[in-house]
Amino acid sequence: MGQHRAEHRGSRRDRADRRSPSSVATPRAAGRRRATAAPRTTSLLPRLSTLATGRRPGGAAARWRHRLSVVPGALGVVALVAAGTGAVTVGEQAPGDAITASAAARAISAGTSAQGRVGQSTAGGSDREAALSRDSERQALQDAAQARLERAAEEQAAERNAELKSLGRAAEARAGEIAKNQWVLPTTGYHLTARFGMAGGLWSSDHTGLDFAAPSGTPIVAIANGTITETGYAGAYGNQTIMTLDDGTEVWFCHQTTIGVEPGDKVAAGQQIGTVGTTGNSTGPHLHLEIRPGGGDPVDPEQALAFHGLTP
Ligand SMILES: [Zn+2]
């Protein structure tokens, strides 16, 4: 292999020796194989070799300068190679010999790199186009990401709006109930054990209220909006809370374990006022509820509740 390469180099040098300086066809082709797309610089090589060996200094040198002024980027590199090559040539070759093949290769290579730099500067337009293309791709990606973010934000805003509308509707409904003074049942988890008007040994007369049996401590809530007017122990009624509605109706809550409000407190329907108990004349924990319109005689709580849409 090595031998074959040496023979090849030799033959090429022979051709270069036979060649006249103006004939540049063969080395230009050889240069293209070694380094692509450097025709302008390789075309100078024969003249370079002429310069290096001192042959034809006049017209060739003028063309040199002219060419190099056209290609300033190549000047420094090729001139540098020419200087180096001159030293090598003088030391190793006969004075009449032209530039060596390896020096030519170096010159071509150097010229190519010079041409490459020139090409880079003159090809700046396409570089800019590529950069612009990359920029527009980046911009497109950023736009797409931005669009996704905006869509997500819009969806979140829509969800929030829907939630707010739902809350608003609930508040309106609640406000409507308050405005209508909607009643609510006084406790939960109960079962009725005695109705209004029932006769029995526990009462001195017929039963004056409605009994909600529930575990001791079960919350008791106001059945409507109103004001607490009496609280405390009341004999057979045990711990008692009386609230008065806006129309003057009194609501009595009896046998409580605890009382959670004081006279004068404004309470709303559903607000806790105490807990279920078995204080007073009672055989087990339950809420005794009485309804007394205008503070007078008791009426049937079931009917009063039914009048307000409730079925205990
Ligand atoms: Zn009762």
Automatic annotation (TrEMBL):
- Which keywords, in A-to-Z order, does the entry hold? Hydrolase
User: What Gene3D superfamilies does the record point to?
Assistant: Glucose Permease (Domain IIA)
- GO MF annotation terms: metalloendopeptidase activity
Ranges of compositional bias, category Basic and acidic residues: 1-20
The residue ranges flagged as biased composition, category Low complexity, are 36-58
Descriptive protein name? Murein DD-endopeptidase MepM and murein hydrolase activator NlpD, contain LysM domain
Q: Which organism is it from?
A: Nocardioides scoriae
Residue span of region Disordered? 1-58
Q: Does Zinc count among this protein's keywords? A: no
Write down the InterPro entries for this protein, in alphabetical order.
Cell_wall_metabolism_enzyme, Dup_hybrid_motif, M23ase_b-sheet_dom
Domain M23ase beta-sheet core, by residue range, is: 206-301
